[in-house]
Amino acid sequence: MQKKRINEQLQKKIIKDAFHHLKNDEVMCYLIKNLASKLDWTNRYNDDYALSISNLIIEQQISFRAAITIKKRFQNLVKNLDYNQILNLENDKIQKIGLSFRKVEYIKNTYMFFLKNSVKFENLSNDEAINELTKIKGIGEWTAQMFLIFNFFRQDIFSKKDLALLNSIKKNYSIQDLTSKRLDYLIKKWKPFNSIASLLLWESVEKGIFFEKKAKNQKKII
How many domains, the chain? Predict the structure, then answer.
């Protein structure tokens, strides 16, 4: 409980500093005004790293609502079980909650990794932590990045492979062709608070709130 309170204090300070920096971006300023009160950076935090990553695996390539349902089923399934007991669960039993065979395999790989390894992620850089996590079969860069954002509150991570983020940028910045050059420009502009910019962009999609230019001849944002 104490650890969670410390994390909440940390994320509040980072968000405050991030808002001060990001408000110089017209789009971000708008999103901050309309969505700041709705942001919850701690909603995916879990001090059980294997469970946290398993939840991220569940989220891959399915809708937000479906993910919520399946995550609840999984948590009920593994409640009060130790890692060995979870690994000994029949794959079919786990699949019945709505998971593919492949995702069950990836989840078990994750539990096996944390059963056999003790990694102090707090002492690793983003790149080092991602390199360590992607050693787990089934864990890609996106999953590792989300783990760092929501479990360790790393403030400057942007996932270029997150379709929701890319679509939110296209909508909010009125960009049809989001080239690598344009994306890199924004990432550099938001630095060192890309994680908080991402939170705002995700919330924009979730709430259906997007920035719109009011003046026809308004200067291009990027």
Answer: 2
